[in-house]
Amino acid sequence: MDPIRNPYAPGAGQRPPELAGRDQQLAAFDVVLERVARGRPERSLVLTGLRGVGKTVLLNALRSAAVRKGWGTGKLEARPDQSLRRPLSSALHQAVRELGRPALDAAEADDVTQVLGVIRSFAQRDAGADAKLRDRWSPGIDVPAVRGRADSGDIEIDLVELFSDVGGLAADAGKGVAVFVDEMQDLGAADVSALCAACHELSQNGLPFIVVGAGLPHLPAVLSASKSYSERLFSYQRIDRLSRDAADRALAAPAAEEDAEFTPEALDAMYDATRGYPYFIQAYGRAVWDLAPRTPITADDVAVAGPEAEQELAVGFFGSRFERATPAERDYLRAMADAAGDEEDPVGSVATADVAGVLGKKPQSLSPARDSLLKKGLIYSGERGRIAFTVPHFGRYLRTQS
What we know:
By secondary structure, the protein is an alpha/beta fold.
């Protein structure tokens, strides 16, 4: 098969040629956009799931849907070592710029300038008089900061004021604003609390402003620990592996665009190998296409390409994450894999006491390694006393490397 025409695209956040299995989420978001545009109450949205199930891809698709409706949008990726102020300011700056198109009359232009000044004030609040230029610089915001608004230093107060001003601008323009937050579980505790409070205020005031977050499976617990009402504040959608029909479509539709096809037996073999995980489907799809001599692609072609696809996953999906761990953390990960055994559970959920038993140590002595792995996003705790891998079938990979 011609590798130049290979339609499959394994990559971090890279949109696949066929966004299969997400029609329900896209349709539900269209309803949210329409309801908010008509002044109806609606909750912000949170997507949760393991690595490799396509959360970032779906987040980008939802953003595109908002753009098509004429909304102002911005996106940021949360980081555990970074305050929310600057990345959120950049995201809102972009959203306000989109709201300002096409050309505005003088009064509307003044309103935009006022809100941009508030965004700048919010961004610069943590920068003292002796701060470096990079901490005082607000790229692209060439209006003066508005003093006395969103600059109190209390992130919760400031975020409520900021969102209210941006939401008010959107309402006056007859549009909406959506901010998309990837890796939402990495926000600091104070930022999570402030974000929940601001979304709560927006919902009470009926402003056309929503937040769409994406994160690991424990994100709902992170939000609930911050504000008890977060369980009612957001609409939670779990993003999982694809059904068999959706997985077949993710493979067959791009192939058909290139005048190729899979035999039914080949699709059976592909689903057995990928288990419906979107990243695995793309990795196997690319390897099988490159190695298959002709169309239709057969089960034998899948068998031949399997080792190359597994090598791609071992290096780019599993290995890259394993390399981020220290020796002590790697021991902990291997012990998790051993404790989980060969069960079908794709995340290898195990009790922390069982991990300690494998290593022959007391659970308390392993807390530093566990906490570090949690911060790195390699494992998560869905319930007290238990942990699991954030990457599906990571335990299986680790057992093959031992």
